[in-house]
Design a protein that fits this description.
two-stranded antiparallel sheet; single chain; globular; about 270 residues; alpha+beta
């Protein structure tokens, strides 16, 4: 017999059981497949999140997109410089209203299009927020170090009752851990190349923290769990983790700093 699909009522009760309250801020990473069959699908998920935190609350999700990158499916090594230049010329670039999220899932994409949701202007690492004073957090988003101090994720550390909410995903999906590494003295770095300022923009290259590729983030998340500062529960059929935003970033920044320092000493 098939499982009974989740409804708005039982999902709302799940959020209440997790301790989420009116006025909370939630930065959410979520898997629809982990939550399971739901009447209303992603729409119901977004409605439940917004209703639970209420008019005074704030919901955030990653709006990361690929419209400003060179197409990943095209092998540059097979192209001439002229062909590469031609493709780069027609890369559409980022449009804050039109660019879809890339790899963020149906819940994040539904949230991006939700009435009242605002989005920061970074061409590849934008952040979506819905709630009072969202624009205050989104107004500045530096091109370099795109999850750092001068970005929405950096500023959300200062919002009272701001929490990380992982729904059916692991610490490897937690964007705030990139913020933590950006703030660390010893960080892994990369260059990020993208088209800035839309279709007619220019290509720029900026420094940023490296992709984790499951090397540190799952381990630092487990270490943070051992401090007792992570709550666990379920939302639909998904296992969940919830914790204070700033506490995670502060802990992880120190942990990653020490880990990277040790790695540097060993190299």
């Amino acid at each position: 017999m098939e499982a009974v699909p989740h409804t708005r009522t039982n999902l709302f009760n799940d959020l209440s059981s997790l301790g989420i309250q009116v006025g909370d801020g939630l930065f959410v990473h979520a898997s629809m497949s982990a939550i399971g069959a739901t009447v209303g699908g992603a729409r119901t998920i977004v409605e439940c999140l917004l209703e639970t935190v209420g008019a005074a609350g704030l919901i955030g999700m990653p709006g990361f997109s690929s419209d400003a990158y060179f197409p990943a499916e095209i092998d540059k090594s097979r192209l001439t410089e002229e062909q590469i230049a031609e493709i780069e010329n027609v890369v559409p670039g980022f449009d804050v209203a039109k660019s879809p999220t890339s790899g963020m899932g149906i819940i994040a994409e539904t949230f991006r299009n939700w009435p009242g949701t605002q989005r920061s202007a970074h061409p590849t690492v934008s952040i979506c927020l819905n709630g009072p004073k969202a624009s205050d957090f989104l107004e500045e988003h530096s091109l370099a170090w795109a999850t750092g101090e001068r970005t929405p994720l950096g500023k959300l550390r200062d919002r009272q009752a701001m929490k990380i909410f992982l729904i059916g995903v692991g610490w490897n999906r937690c964007s705030a851990l990139h913020t933590a590494e950006t703030l660390a003295q010893n960080k892994r770095t990369k260059s990020r190349r993208f088209k800035n300022s839309g279709a007619n923009g220019t290509w720029v290259e900026t420094p940023d923290v490296a992709d984790d590729m499951n090397r540190l983030f799952p381990t630092v998340g487990e270490a943070f769990e051992k401090t007792g500062n992570v709550s666990f529960g379920v939302f639909g059929s998904a296992e969940c983790r919830i914790c204070d935003f700033r506490s995670l970033v502060d802990f992880a920044s120190d942990w990653i700093d020490c880990s990277n320092r040790r790695s540097g000493d060993d190299s």
